Amino acid sequence: MRKLVAESVAEALHCAGDETVRLYVAGCVERMAPLFVGLRAGVGREADLDFYVESGHGLWYADRPIVDASERVRVLEEFAELRPSDEGISDTADTYAFFAALVLHHALLANASGKADDAVSCGHVSLTAMGMLDQNVGGAAFLKDEERLQLLSVSADIAGLWEASVEAGRERFRAVLSRTALTAG
Length: 185
What we know:
By secondary structure, the protein is mainly alpha-helical.
């Protein structure tokens, strides 16, 4: 399967050190976090929400891997979003919560390994989700914004990356909420 991650971003990840890989995936998770946390809030999964937020926070310490990243991958794999079911995923909220969980999964793998291929997989999932969101929200440019932020994540000047990632995550959440309101009504 062709990866959606820009060639320049993938090349930068392969040439850069572990810290750049970790920073890149931290940004991806930050932008997707509202889709998991916001869409799963209030359904009795507080421990899962805390786990997601804590894991995302830990990813920003890009100078070192999360000590228990491998254990966190194992825990995350038990989340309903990452467990196959016969029904599949058809609900809007479930779809984007799945993408957010999968981004965190790849991010934790990349954080532990420092491997560019794990980071590229993380970025690919983010781009796939944003391409899908663009198709479902008229006039949206979430894919283009994700591409821009991924490029920023591997640039020499990362000033404002966290703030931009937080704002992008909020915008995504609002867009998905508008989609869930349309499909529920």
